[in-house]
Amino acid sequence: MDPEYSLQDVVRCHLCETPVPPLHCVICSIHLCKTCVEKHLSDESKEHKIVSFKYRRSTPKCQNHLTRICELYCENCNIPMCALCFSSEEHQTHDVVDILKSLESKTSVLQNDLKELEERVYPNLKEIASNYQEKKTDLDQNSKKLSTSIHKQGEELHREIDIIIEKMISDLNEMHSKYISVLRNQEHEITHTIYEITKSIADLKKLLNSNDDNQILAYKSRNADFRRLPFSLNVSLPSFTPTNINNEYMFQLFGSLSALTIETKSLGYTTESMNIESSSPDRPFIDVPRIIIDIKTDYGHLNKLLGVTCLSDEEIWTCGGDNIVRLYNLHGQLVKSIHTASGNMPYDIALTKCGKLVYTDNDDKTVNIVKNTQIQTVIRLQGWNPLGVCSTSSGDLLVVMDNDKCKQTKVVRYSGTIEKQIVQYNVKGHSFYSYDKNSNIKYIAENRNLDICVSDNKARSVVVVNQAGKLRFTYTGPPSTTTSTKGSFYPVGITIDTHSRMLITDCYNHRIHILDHDGQFLRYIDKCQLRGPWGLCVDNRDSLFVADHITGQVRKIKYNK
């Protein structure tokens, strides 16, 4: 007890002075001990309502019957009421409960809500709010970067337009000068002829008036010469036919700005736990990538290992210089082997969305799918040779192919056996991809923006176009400031990780390039005993699998934290 308070401050029973009474009559407004309750209730001259001491102030007076207290609570009307109110027809069909029980229930709800807000919701929202400044900074930096790129593209476009305008004006001036020269020559000739005719008319009149027989006999007519008028000019004047310029055309010419994607996730939690989900930045790289597992295969010097794709986190399909596609587990044990239907070596392998194996047969000009142990040809080409293949997020197949007769290369999208799209030329009519019969190394992947990414070993580049087939960027190697002493870029295998980063094997330089989704160089992987890395893939955890065609081993590499 606080020493400032005397014993007189202790709450006592109003009838017997017993300290700290546990009960209270809300009608009479007196405190009661248990012993005095019966005595108090014996006074039948008025009503009584005994409640626990803690509820002594919780029972309001009835607004309709001022002499009575509210003992009940109507949950339909959300109002307290007395017994007389309840007896009215208004509340007969409503849910009416004891007001103290309702109060206790509501108090429990309030306490739980307070606890949840203080311990869970508020701290998590504060944490999320603290990340918004970082997100705004990222947004500002990204917008500044894109604005610079857009202005730069605008300047390039203006320069190209200025060149076109200057060329057209020059051609027009040249045509103008040429036509003026012709007109002047014709005008001079006609003026001279008019002068000669005028002089001849005067001479004839003078001769006729002279009566000089000798001169008349000596006269020779020049009319035949005067009848020969100058050649008439049949001129088709130049004209200018402007291209119908509309927004769609201009955006195709200028470039494209990808849409802003905002994914809002709810705060899913229970009263026991709450997990706040929010978008996180790309998983950072570890300082030095390292080999986790070396998987030995049956490929060797003659049948070099070329391709790898993940069936799961525990099994990988491989292909190489023979006619067998092999499935290995991470211990290097052969789980399954599939012989190609034609007996030819497969050029590339991929997996469909449902996990079925697809391979291209360059010599047989087919794309094939393996269902259990049966091989079905889904695409048979005429004149074209299939090279790299990948399965898209929509379930389509993208196949890069070349043609020895027309010496061209293109990418074709297939839905089943139906050809849906061809990607081959840029807006100027030039091919995106090189052709070389002796160096037809090309692989393909789709990134998470639905861009089509093709590695072109002959051109020493990776070409990325958007879903509509418009060029996004071409990567030919890192900036000079990051270039090592090694030679040119020799891209072969290509894959995309879960953060839309592109990984490309640089076979003859024994390293892997990692780019962001806009083609900006991020880093190399070049210290993992790589010897001729060719095909590569990532699993669901972003572990990297690299097919080393010199050693015949598949290396599982960790490069993310």
UniProtKB/TrEMBL annotation:
One matching Pfam family: zf-B_box
A GO BP entry: protein polyubiquitination
Keyword Cell cycle (UniProt): no
Keyword Metal-binding: yes
Gene Ontology molecular function terms on file: ubiquitin protein ligase activity; zinc ion binding
InterPro entries per UniProt: 6-blade_b-propeller_TolB-like, NHL_repeat, TRIM-NHL_E3_ligases, WD40/YVTN_repeat-like_dom_sf, Znf_B-box
Sequence ranges of the NHL repeats: 490-518
Keyword list, A-Z: Metal-binding, Repeat, Zinc, Zinc-finger
Domain B box-type: start-end pairs: 8-53, 57-99
Protein name: B box-type domain-containing protein
Native organism: Magallana gigas (Pacific oyster)
Taxonomic placement: Eukaryota, Metazoa, Spiralia, Lophotrochozoa, Mollusca
